[in-house]
Amino acid sequence: MCGIVGYIGKAAAPPILINGLRRLEYRGYDSAGLAIIEEGKIIVAKAPGKVQSLSNKTRDEWPQERFANISLGIAHTRWATHGPPTEVNAHPHLDQAGNIALVHNGIIENYRSLRSKLEAKGHHFLSETDTEVLSHLIGDRYKGDLFQAVCDALHLIEGTFGIAVIAASEPNKIIVARRGSPIVIGIGEGETIIASDASAILAHTQRVIYLDDNDIAIITADGIDIRDLHNIPVNREISELEFDTGAAEKAGFAHFMLKEIHEQPDSLRNAIRGRLDFNLGSSVLSGMGSSPRDLAEINRVVLIGCGTSLHSGLIGEYAFEDLADIHAEVQQAAEFRYRNPIISRSDLVIAISQSGETADTLAAVREANQKGAFVMGLCNVVGSTIARETGRGIYLHAGPEISVASTKAFTCQVAVLLMMALKMGRSRRYSRQEGMDFARAIEAIPALVAQVIEQDHHIAQIAELYYQNEHAFFIGRGPMYPVALEGALKLKEISYIHAEGYHAAELKHGPIALLQKGTPVIALANDIPGKDKTLGNVEECRARGARILGIITSGDHEAAAAMDDVIEIPACHPLVATVPTAVALQLFAYHIARLRGCEIDQPRNLAKSVTVE
Ligand code: F6R
Known about the structure:
Elements: E1 3-8, H1 13-24, E2 31-38, E3 41-48, H2 51-61, H3 64-67, E4 72-78, E5 93-94, E6 100-105, H4 111-120, H5 130-141, H6 146-155, E7 161-167, E8 170-179, E9 184-187, E10 192-195, E11 207-210, E12 215-220, E13 223-228, E14 239-240, H7 256-262, H8 264-272, E15 276-277, E16 282-283, H9 292-296, E17 300-305, H10 307-324, E18 327-332, H11 333-336, E19 347-353, H12 359-370, E20 374-379, H13 385-390, E21 393-395, H14 408-426, H15 432-443, H16 445-453, H17 456-466, E22 471-476, H18 480-495, E23 498-503, E24 520-524, H19 531-543, E25 547-553, H20 557-561, E26 565-569, H21 578-595
Parallel strand pairs: 17-18, 17-19, 19-20, 20-21, 22-23, 22-24, 24-25, 25-26
Antiparallel strand pairs: 1-4, 1-10, 2-3, 2-4, 5-6, 6-7, 7-8, 8-12, 9-10, 9-11, 11-14, 12-13, 15-16
Helix pairs in contact: 1-2, 4-5, 5-6, 8-14, 8-16, 10-14, 10-18, 14-15, 16-21, 17-21, 18-21
The structure holds fructose -6-phosphate.
Fructose -6-phosphate binds next to helix 10 and helix 18.
């Protein structure tokens, strides 16, 4: 979603800001802009489209020698919410006097009424955005102290914001603030860089401070002064970023998505390392923070998330019921707080989110906290809002996921959920021997995934047979049903093929009407309970002329004979098999999107982290 970068220090700011924006491109955006201060005036450049267009514009219009001494600026990538992605709607936005420039992530919910009041006072707006209203509001309150003006304006705002603000009349500072939209401050040597996401900071420093909601900070080249909105100083810890710039590069792969798919044996090893106890037949997840006795008192597990994270939750649901004999259910995070869910203190609510910033999941976490549940986060991004607000939970350790389509975070989520279910199971009916066997099954996941990745070339050849279709159906049963949903989501989001995932039994309750000669059906027919029934459903599809790609267990000749094409998954525990099967579908979606010439890492209309409801 939208991205913010700001710099103050000793180097020329424009190239640093452009490079920072490039690091945020993966989040998805549709226009970009930046503002600097030159000789007491704010100068702004904006462009619809890619950061490259902004870069070309600044290169042509801003000769290097002219701006070599400009060492302060703010920049933004915008994902359109209020008004189309045009140059005029792009950030930064100025106040009425042209003294103040602002970049903003989030949504100002009461912008209409604020705009009318400001218009009545003579303010004239150029854009359709909610952000311009905030810049005018700050300008309206400005009496020579930018910090105070921002504070005053933010008191009048309803909604969410991560902002960076500069004023031509105070050229030695940037004011940043957050509520519901992250701001990270990177502490360098005589320079400070701020961003909405640590990946834009890494090239400068690994020492960072994460702002909390309602924090506002005055940033200078060598100082950071953090206060709350009532001007009371607050202390925030300095953290060390765990990844370096290398982790955010493509490392020779054509796309971040392909790199991240190939990284999975390693990311899974990192997610699992040190977390299995083969002696007790359990897992060591200190983030769960409870004794076996406390865990035994949990009556229900509620898994919440959105999109891909919702799908891993659906696999978790099978695992908790199967291993731990505990009632588990998945709830769509966006619906959670509006349906007034029945939650009690004996419920464990697990919020699953790669980014840890998804607005709907965060809102659901707050609702679950409000209702007194035991809430836990399953996040990848360290220090993210959900990780911090849940207070307890488990990090995935998947490493930075840059591609918009989630791959390695999904498989690590599943691996961690299996370990959580194992731990819960051992506090209930699961025997030590069963636990030891399942721990071994989890330990094998990275190697199983590596065997699927070895088939990359074979999967690319299969994709050649399917990439020209405009529709596809994914079917599966049991824990393979959520994998079918995830396979369909991966395909549709990066290749723009209309793809649907169904429980294999559901097909004949309606969707089978859509099958015609050659319609692709991707059947997850692994050798797990229910396979025979899935093979029956495959026959029904074949009878209607569908072309069947079977994901089957290696050496299963019966299943192979029912398919037109096959991808083989090594034999393993049914719950564990969800992970290598998902990886096969990730590669299938990737190669189809590549053959269709799609922009794989940044699919149209999508954002890496969805920080608006
Ligand atoms: C799809 C995808 C999205 C995210 C969803 C939730 O590939 O990435 O569906 O899974 O937007 O994001 P997080 O996990 O960051 O909460």
